[in-house]
Specification:
Elements: E1 6-8, E2 13-18, E3 21-30, E4 33-40, H1 50-65, E5 68-71, H2 74-82
Parallel strand pairs: 4-5
Antiparallel strand pairs: 1-2, 2-3, 3-4
């Protein structure tokens, strides 16, 4: 997937538009902990790795900002499990 991912901090989202459809991750913050609540990719643009690109961008942002992550949505949890290089971001509390 080559579409650019935009971080909209005011809406607490990482998003991308592909073929006129918006895929996004929603999160909320609690101090230095980012809770990833939803990963949404419309079926019209599914199967292209968009969710993975969004998740990687969100997790790279969390790392750069020194945040911990709560993977509250099932996709976020599965992504971190499949990509152990992000396990250190998982909030242990």
């Amino acid at each position: 997937m080559s579409a650019a991912v935009k971080h909209d901090a005011t809406r607490h989202r990482f998003e991308t538009v592909v073929d006129g459809h918006t895929g996004y991750i929603e999160y909320h913050m609690d101090d230095a902990v980012m809770s990833i609540d939803h990963t949404i990719v419309p079926s019209e643009i599914g199967g292209r790795g968009i969710a993975g690109t969004l998740m990687k961008t969100a997790l790279d942002y969390a790392r750069a900002e020194g945040l911990k992550v709560i993977p509250a949505c099932s996709y976020a949890d599965a992504y971190i499990t499949k990509h152990p290089e992000y396990e250190d971001l998982r909030n242990s509390n």
